[in-house]
Design brief:
The complex is a heterodimer of chains A (334) and B (735).
Chain A lengths: L18 H5 L9 H7 L16 H11 L1 H23 L31 H37 L1 H15 L3 H11 L4 H27 L3 H8 L4 H37 L11 H10 L6 H29 L7
Chain B lengths: L3 E13 L4 E13 L3 E5 L6 H9 L6 E10 L2 E2 L5 H7 L4 E4 L13 H13 L3 H14 L5 H4 L9 H13 L5 E5 L7 H18 L2 E6 L2 H7 L2 E6 L2 E7 H6 L4 H8 L49 E4 L2 E3 L11 H6 L17 H13 L1 H6 L7 H10 L2 E16 L4 E17 L3 E5 L6 H8 L7 E6 L9 H7 L3 E4 L13 H12 L4 H14 L16 H13 L5 E5 L7 H18 L2 E6 L2 H7 L2 E6 L2 E7 H6 L4 H9 L5 H6 L30 H5 L4 E3 L5 E3 L31
Parallel strand pairs in B: 3-8, 3-9, 6-7, 7-8, 15-19, 15-20, 17-18, 18-19
Antiparallel strand pairs in B: 1-2, 1-4, 4-5, 9-10, 10-12, 11-12, 13-14, 13-16, 20-21, 21-23, 22-23
Helix pairs in contact in B: 3-4, 3-6, 4-6, 6-7, 17-18, 18-19, 19-20
Chain lengths: 334, 735
């Protein structure tokens, strides 16, 4: 960045344009972002308050890393993703065929975490199960958040009759227990991962929509929204330019909670045996199998899966906490 | 010799921030005697509230008293334990805060809140506490305390709530009352009442009072001694009379001069203090005021000691005002060459500060875009009289339904604006004044076409904008723009300033990218901000700078009319005058027409050509600004003018009692006849029966009152629609 070359004066005043630049007409600032910076008239006094006009990303990253817990959470999540998706490439196991001779073997050199009741390698199963678990978690988080965001923002911003109708729909859907959905759908179709994601999202977006609507109601009375309408912005322009960016903080944090919720919900669906059928697996199903054999002392079937679920949910939650710091833009300068 | 209640010695309070430790209060000493009222004045962020909180030991978690003593009746409060301190708070020292909305608990009755300190400190029985509560509520002037005692805070008006707040502070009869901006959130009429109350209580209870305020007018009338703080330091301390008569510190002098006064020449530039207070974590070396000071010299690189300039008059300055003759003239002369008489000291920050000083000292926003000097009053009046009417407001009514009952049926309506008519000429500034809740903001929103009137019309350049639909309406919106009160809420916190300023151009599809950025850059120049602002976010600016950005945004589309709702009321006086000067300069260079809404008559008097006074939805008086101030016809206008605190102790102390009694009645059921009658000293029976018509009181001056303070002129009679501004004849096209 150009400003690094000139050390800023130690004043916190963002000073008036220098007298020199005021008299002469400005040279045209170029429209590109880099150009904007370069356009700062050379004679103009440099501001100082923000030592270097760091990009929003860099500021965000700095705030995030200042939350040590969130940083640890992010590291854990990255490790878990590597474990699930890269792990199988390094640790080859047969996750398709079941083997009667190698049922319920305890951890050993050939099976680092023992074997499952079907005789498949447990560590390999954890990796395979991690893939679907993380896919469902992130999938539901993103899908539910996007839909809830659009729905809630529209309802809150437009208001009136539309708002009333849209919110009563949400209320009605909230009154149906999601397990009922799941059982119904499992009876109608053979559950696959995509279906699970859709079903869980269908249950999950409702609370996001409510949250977003509430926030929108308060945002739409802000002066900057009034100002924007005052120079003729249409509703969709206001939502895109002012409402959504200001919602992002809340929504992203809420999204991470949705991820954690979805992982837990997927685990309970699988626990009930309504998940995708074997040999596909996920951590919830592994946990369920482990509990069946709890009294045989096969701890390797129970604890690792449970631990991974807890670890993932905790990691995602503290990441959400860190993201909420980032979203609080005022924290970025102090 | 009266008993000394409070003695603060060399107090230093530090805050631990993420980036640094800053001393918000640095070596402050003060004393207060029994029955004395001491004022603490300064801009926001100068440490006055922190001083009050340090005495109470109610600092936020990151703050600590690190040095000095706070002697209350000879006992040092600083080393006391938290438990001991609780015994002191409320019983020996009490504090009242600015905002009566948040300082009372909404879930407790006011009686319970007033009784709370009694129960805590004296373990009073229920009955004894109740008796004392009623007594205290009576003392602070709550009508019918026995009926009110079971009310909740939301059932009371702002003024009554502040009285309750004072009652809670006084219940245990403390020796010292710290009043932190006790009237800042209140209307001037209520402010006068509350200040009277504090005065009376101080005499009756012989309490010591520390009055913390930014309003020098309030200080003038109510205090015995004044201390001026700047950037955590005490810079001047004197008796009130002495301070106003013989100001010594340049900061105190500048602060006094930057307040717009009713007697102010509206055509001269307001003197203002360039720049704004320093960041406490990056203080300039030596005198902290030096970078903004007119008289600063290289000597100011040293820290000036607080020395006695006259008996009991302490000043911390190497170049006290009045000693160096001739310097004062340089300060007040508008348009003095930038930095020439006294160039800022050679502190490292001088490069940046120089530029900002140059801007405000020399009126350079005007220099860039406005080659014409401000015309004198007569020229301006004649030009305006000949100008065409831009805005016509005709019999405008706005009522909001009040719904209640199980099915949310309409049970009544809030009569926000009732039958208001006026006109604004091209290039004119129309000031709208009234207490909060009088409908002035609603009227402003309707003029800005943001709200549809219940009936009546608003025309801009002859067209009724709200008749238009869709794209036509959106295109015409560029002709009127808004400026907001709260510089924090009016800019989108997630957009860079460049995008904020460019947004109107994008929405209206004006020019290509390159032209849009050119416009943004030149706007920043015009409002006196560095072009580096383009890349920054709003939170990186001070309140005054944000207000400049807000003004720049309002100008991007070259509007004909700017509706400014309380444009400076959230700003410090020194910054306020910068913005007022800027608004005037931009009006000249862009040929703008302003509708300025404010509760502050002094601001409007400086800014406006025409003034409209609103009371409870009605326009009660309308006329040329000078005329309305010099010869108010309506008792309400007169009361409002009387209620403004004037920074002159002799005038202020001569005022005997609040000019307007009581509080604004409900707009759901406004009083019959004249709406002001319930608070009017002149009201008689006819006022309740008949609504007074608008009558003329000279050219373009009308008022609606049965018993006006002037005798009405005969040429303008009842029913005449006052689409008149500075001009003497009714505007053409008025219906």
């Amino acid at each position: 960045m150009t400003t690094h070359d000139n050390p800023p004066p130690p004043s916190q005043e963002l000073p008036a344009a220098g007298a020199a630049t005021m008299a002469t007409r400005p040279s045209a600032p170029s429209p590109q972002r880099s150009g904007e910076r370069a356009a700062t008239a050379p004679g103009a006094p440099r501001d100082s308050d923000v030592a270097a006009p760091a990009s929003a990303w860099r500021l965000g990253l700095r705030t995030f890393t200042e939350n040590h817990l969130a940083t640890v959470g992010l590291v854990i999540l990255v490790l878990l993703v590597l474990f699930s998706f890269v792990g199988p490439l390094l640790y080859h196991t047969n996750q398709v065929a079941s083997s009667l001779i190698s049922q319920n073997l305890p951890p050993s050199g050939s099976h680092l975490l023992g074997t499952s009741p079907e005789g498949r390698d447990e560590l390999g199963r954890l990796m395979l199960g991690g893939q679907s678990t993380i896919e469902v978690g992130l999938g539901v988080g993103v899908l539910a958040t996007l839909f809830g965001l659009v729905y809630g923002a529209l309802s809150g911003f437009v208001g009136g009759v539309l708002d009333a109708v849209m919110m009563r729909v949400v209320d009605a859907l909230l009154s149906i227990p999601y397990l009922f959905f799941v059982v119904l759908l499992a009876a109608l179709a053979r559950p696959n991962l995509l279906l699970v994601i859709v079903v869980l999202s269908a249950a999950s977006w409702l609370s996001t929509a409510r949250l977003v609507r509430g926030e929108t109601l308060s945002l739409r009375t802000r002066d900057y929204v009034t100002a924007s309408q005052g120079f003729g912005s249409r509703a969709h322009q206001v939502i895109a330019r002012h409402i959504t960016p200001n919602l992002l903080g809340v929504v992203v944090v809420n999204g991470t909670l949705k991820v954690a919720d979805a992982i837990l919900a997927f685990a309970s669906i699988a626990y009930l045996g309504l998940g995708p059928p074997p040999p596909a697996t996920n951590w919830g199903e592994l946990l369920s199998a482990g509990i069946n054999n709890l009294f045989d002392g096969y701890w390797w079937q129970l604890w690792p899966a449970g631990l991974l679920i807890v670890l993932t949910v905790l990691a995602v939650n503290v990441i959400g906490d860190g993201l909420s710091d980032v979203a609080e833009i005022r924290l970025q300068k102090r | 010799m009266k008993q000394r209640i409070l003695e603060v010695e060399h107090l230093r309070t530090e805050f631990h921030l993420r980036s640094a430790n800053v001393a918000a209060v640095d070596d402050v000493s003060l004393t207060i005697d029994q029955g004395e009222c001491v004022g603490l004045v300064g801009e926001s962020g100068c440490g006055k509230s922190t001083t009050g909180l340090s005495i109470m030991r109610l600092l936020p978690r990151s703050g600590h008293v690190t040095a000095g003593r706070v002697l209350l009746d000879g006992r040092d409060l600083v080393p006391l334990s938290e438990a001991q301190m609780r015994q002191v708070r409320g019983r020996e020292v009490s504090m009242i805060f600015q905002d009566p909305m948040t300082s009372l608990n909404p879930t407790m009755t006011i009686g319970a809140q007033v009784a709370e300190p009694l129960v805590i400190h004296f373990g009073s029985s229920k009955k004894a506490a109740m008796d004392r509560t009623l007594e205290t509520l009576h003392l602070v002037g709550i009508p019918n305390p026995r009926e009110r005692v079971d009310d909740y805070p939301h059932q009371l008006s702002g003024g009554l709530r502040q009285r309750v707040m004072i009652a809670t502070a006084l219940a245990a009869e403390p020796k010292l009352l710290i009043a932190d901006e006790p009237t800042t959130a209140l209307d001037v009429t209520i402010q006068a009442q509350i200040l009277d109350l504090l005065d009376r209580l101080r005499e009756e209870l012989s309490m010591a009072v520390l009055l913390i305020t930014h309003d020098i007018g309030v200080i003038a009338g109510r205090t015995d001694r004044v201390m001026v703080m700047y950037a955590g330091r005490m810079v001047e301390s004197a008796t009130t009379d002495e301070l106003f008569a013989a100001t010594r510190h340049p900061y105190a002098e500048a602060l006094l001069q930057s307040i717009p006064q009713l007697t102010q020449d509206a055509n001269a530039r307001l003197p203002s203090i360039p720049g704004h207070p320093p960041d406490l974590s990056r203080l300039p070396p030596g005198c902290r005021f030096a970078p903004r000071c007119r008289y600063a010299s290289p000597a100011c690189i040293e820290e000036p000691p607080l020395e006695e300039a006259a008996t009991g008059h302490l000043v911390a300055c190497f170049h006290p005002v009045g000693v160096l003759s001739g310097a004062a003239a340089a300060w007040s002369a508008p348009g003095a060459p930038a930095g020439a008489p006294t160039s800022p000291p050679p502190v490292p920050a001088s490069a940046a500060l120089d530029a900002s000083a140059a801007l405000d000292a020399s009126g350079s926003p005007a220099r860039a875009g406005d080659p014409t000097p401000p015309p004198d009053a007569t020229t301006r009046r004649l030009t305006l009289a000949a100008a065409a009417v831009l805005v016509e407001v005709d019999h405008l009514v706005k009522e909001y339904p009040v719904r209640g009952g199980g099915l949310r049926r309409r049970v009544g309506s809030v009569k926000a604006v009732s039958d208001v008519s006026f006109g604004i000429r091209r290039g004119e500034t129309f000031g709208l004044v009234g207490e909060s809740g009088c409908g002035k903001s609603t009227l402003g929103r309707m003029v800005a076409a943001l709200e549809r009137p219940t009936s009546g019309t608003v025309r801009l350049g002859g067209d009724e904008l709200l008749r238009l639909r869709g794209a036509d309406l959106r295109r015409r919106r560029r002709e009127l723009q808004l400026m907001f009160q709260d510089p924090y809420a009016s800019l989108d916190p997630r957009m860079r300033v460049g995008s904020i300023l460019r947004e109107p151009l994008v929405v209206q599809g004006v020019g290509d990218r390159r032209q849009q950025w050119e416009t943004v850059a030149s706007l920043l120049d015009e409002v006196g901000l560095s072009r580096r602002a383009i890349d920054l976010y709003p939170h990186e600016f001070s309140g005054g700078q944000r207000q400049r950005i807000g003004l720049a945004r309002a100008l991007t589309l070259n509007p004909r009319l700017v509706v400014a709702d309380e444009p400076v009321s959230a700003l410090d006086v020194s910054i306020q005058s910068q913005i007022l000067n800027l608004m005037k300069a931009l009006q000249r260079s862009h040929g703008l027409t302003y509708l300025v809404i404010s509760h502050d008559l002094a601001v409007l008097r400086y800014l406006s050509d025409t003034i409209g006074v609103m009371y409870l939805g009605k326009m009660v008086e309308l006329g040329a600004a000078d005329d309305v101030y010099a010869r108010p016809a309506h008792p309400y206008t007169h009361g409002l003018i009387q209620a403004i605190p004037v920074p002159d102790p002799s005038i202020e102390k001569a005022k005997r009692s609040a000019a307007v009694r009581g509080e604004l009645p409900s707009a759901v059921n406004p009083p019959s006849g004249c709406r002001f009658r319930t608070r009017c000293p002149l009201a008689q029976e006819i006022c309740a029966e008949e609504e007074p018509p608008l009558r003329g009181f000279g050219p373009g001056h009308v008022a609606a009152c049965h018993f006006p303070l002037l005798s009405p002129s005969t040429d303008q009679q009842a029913g005449a629609v006052p689409v008149v501004s500075v001009a003497s004849e009714p505007a053409p096209g008025a219906s």
